[in-house]
Amino acid sequence: MTAYSILDLVRIRENGNAKISLDNARDLAAHAENWGYTRFWMAEHHNMPGIASAATSVAICHVAAGTSRIRVGAGGIMLPNHSPLVIAEQFGTLDALYPGRIDLGLGRAPGTDQLTLRALRRHPGSADSFPQDVLELQALLGPIEPGQRIRAIPGADSNVPLYILGSSTYGAALAGQFGLPYAFASHFAPDYLYTALETYRSRFTPSEQQKTPYATVGVNIIVADTDHEAQRLATTQQMSITHLLRGDRGLSKPPIDDIDTYWSIEEKRQAQRMLACSIIGSPDTVREGIKTLLAQTKANELMIVSDVYDHERRLRSYQQIAEIMTALNETTHAAAGQPA
């Protein structure tokens, strides 16, 4: 069985605002737990007018309060921006409020530009201590040791599960060495997907948290009634990537009929490379695309981005994705002679 989950970018739309985006995230998560999604993650981005999840732990609390079963977490917290103690306290508090439902994915990149990094009061070289910071955070969330003078309260002995996020072999090797689950950001940086998965699995060492490798693959999926309509809906994300390439971190835009009128040839080339791990189309098209991706990656879990401008259409896309995943999992169980 392949788990399926949601990464919500909490995009702020034109004619919208941060509250609408955060409320839509909460509404999506409430639907998602009834559609069989395993977890709902949000990511830390700073100084981006089009994304509302900068205060990630606060956004997680808002979503968790509106749900009852689905796991909620960070995909991820950019650990170089913070002291491990502060993150341990934040996620320890979340775990105290919503026990057994909180995930903590950790990234090494700053999630912003160098000027904003300085505004966060972090040193540009703080990413160099990422492995040590992960171990420190893990210890702060783990059992209290005799004579331990600094504790995360809440947080100590909560054992909030950690995940390593990455888009290269660096994070894959670290996740394998530490025996932690690994999530690859192929939804926007797919170049090293297969190399990273091989690195992770070959270097995995069992740990207290994770006995066997567990790989999550990020993927863009948009489902609509027809391939043409799904491709049109996908122009919202394509425009967002084009803005990023132009250094413009603007608001999410409604879909357009012809994306080739919007981007240059070079922007199209770069955007298509970044979005290469995308499955867009009718239910039949998406079903075959997911089957191919799973056969190629052997992923334990898909972390799905369905970046659709209109909230109701986005809900429908995620609902159809869940129906496809449920059917595929039932087929897999039947083929293995197991009950669905």
TrEMBL record:
It comes from the Bacteria. Pfam families: Bac_luciferase. Residues 5-297 form the Luciferase-like domain. One of its GO terms (cellular component) is cytosol. GO terms for molecular function: oxidoreductase activity, acting on paired donors, with incorporation or reduction of molecular oxygen. To bacterial alkanal monooxygenase alpha and beta chains. This is Luciferase-like monooxygenase. It comes from Pusillimonas minor.
